[in-house]
Amino acid sequence: MGGCDVAANESDTFIRLLTECQGRLYSYIMAILPDSVAAHEVLSETNVKLWRKWSEFQMDKDFAVWAFRFAYFEVLAYQKRRRTDRHIFQGDLLDEIAKDAAPASQDVNEKLVALGKCIEKLSCDDRKLINLRYQSGVSVQEMASSRGKTPNAISHALFRIRSALAGCIERTLKMGYTE
Fold this sequence. Notes:
single chain; 80% helix; Rna Polymerase Sigma Factor, Chain: A; 2 domains; mainly alpha; 7 helices; 179 residues; disordered N terminus; Arc Repressor Mutant, subunit A
């Protein structure tokens, strides 16, 4: 019974670490391979490889750095399979892009955390508008019709909310409250 608990704890640890860096990992892959379909494919393959090699991970190391290395090799493998595509980066250029992508993915992750905190601060009505438009994909015209407003009024409201969110994100990042 004790062996099952150890295995479950190790799985829980892996899932927690992988989940925490999933956004950064996707951003990293997208920075190297700017095709969302390809990036999702590479991310899936990377996740599988990380799980298979989990027993080799040393807990005193940075999981994200370890995961980025796997992602880098998965990008190379993906590009090798797609070698006929003339938009594939090769050699040194790919290495440079990969080096620049890791810090950028951290920035994206911090901005996403800040965005989540800022959205929580919005009024209920503003959150509903943002969710309708950007999560559900409802058009401005549809939103206007269902609320008895003009599309221009909805557009102005969305602009005001986006501006407030941008300011909130900037303040949150400056104050360092993204952990």
